[in-house]
Each structure stands twice: as C-alpha cells, then as structure tokens.
Amino acid sequence: MQQKKMVNEMLSTYIRQAAKLIFAGAFLFLSAQFSVHAQAKTPVTKQIHFADQQWEKTLQLAKKQHRLIFVDAYAVWCGPCRDLKTKTFRNSKVASYFNSHFVNVSLDMEKGEGLKFAEKYEVDSYPTLLLINGDGNVVSKSEGFFTADELNSWAKKAETKS
Fold first, then answer.
1. How many CA atoms lie within 13 A of 43 on its CB side?
2. Domain Thioredoxin spans what residues (predicted)?
3. Phi and psi for 63 in degrees, rounded to 5?
C-alpha cells in the first residue's frame, strides 16, 4: 500500500511538472507569434505621417505652427491614389520633407468630412493634392500621380509662393 502511495505521489509530481512545462512552452510560443506579428506591422520605411483629426483643428494647428497643410484627397477605389500611398508617400526623402514642413492630412472624398471638403475645394478627380494655408486658402492644387521627385519639387515650389 505504501509503495502504491509513493508511485501515485511521484506520478502526481511528474504530471504537475509536465503541465508547467507545457504551459510555459505554449506561453513562449504565443509570445513569439505576437512579437513576429507586431514586427510585421511595423513600417520598415519612413513614410508621410497623416494627422487624424477634424479639419477645423487641422487649420488651427497649421496656423499655430506656421505651416501649410498638405492634403491627399483620395477615393478608396482609385488606383493612382493607392500608388501614391504605397510608393511616393513611403519614399524617405518625401517623408522627411513633408513631415518636417507640413501638417499632413489624408481625406476620403466620398465619406465623412471629405464630402464637404470636396465640395468646398472643388475636388472632382483623384488623386488631388493640395497645399492649404492656416486660413483655409489654397496655395497650390494638382491632380494625378506624382513620383517622389515630382512631389517634392511641386511642394517646394508651392511653399515659396506662400
């Protein structure tokens, strides 16, 4: 009887230890999976950072910082709009210049504030890119896709006009 009790206690100990090891292994495995997933979402390249705020607050911020507002007026179905986002806006030279010189905003012209914006600023094709001062006046407006060099050149030229 004594021997049976010892065997049961040993088995119980081994089972608890095995359960702890299994739990620890599962925890490490899941932690690694979440870490890899989080790293995959981290942008590898620098890109234009777009403010996520209401238009009136954007105007106030631009006025306070003495900067122009860069507006990416787009539609979700627009191919050249997607190309701007995935190529041009992720160019390190473009990102560096735009992030240091402008308050950047990206607006879907077919929903939310984009609807009023499109009407006020006469946006009827996509993509439309605008530079607007803190008073809401258009400094420069252009339509269509830009390469990185073209976009930087357009922005620098427009900035000298403001």
1. 13
2. 30-160
3. -65, -45
Buried b (16+ CB within 10 A) or exposed e, 138-155: eebbeeebbebeebbeeb
Placement of tokens 């890899």 in the chain: 36
CA distance readout (Å), 134 to 57, 67, 128, 137, 162:
10, 7, 19, 7, 11
Q: Helices 92-101 and 148-161: crossing angle, nearest 10°?
A: 20
The separation between CA 151 and the C-alpha centre of its own chain, rounded to angstroms, equals: 19
**pLDDT given at position 36:** 40
Please give the distance of CA 62 from its chain centroid, rounded to a whole number.
20
pTM: 0.72
Buried b (16+ CB within 10 A) or exposed e, 66-94: ebbbbbbbbbeebebbeebbeebbbbeeb
Mean pLDDT of the chain: 84
Reply yes or no on whether the pLDDT at 138 is more than 70.
Answer: yes
Residues 87 and 150: beta-carbon distance below 8 Å:
no
CA distance 92 to 83: 15
Q: Kindly report the backbone phi and psi dihedral angles of residue 42, in degrees, each rounded to the nearest multiple of 5, phi listed first.
A: -75, 125
Alpha-helix residue ranges (DSSP H) falling in 42-144: 55-65, 79-86, 92-101, 113-120
- Token readout for 5 is 């009790």
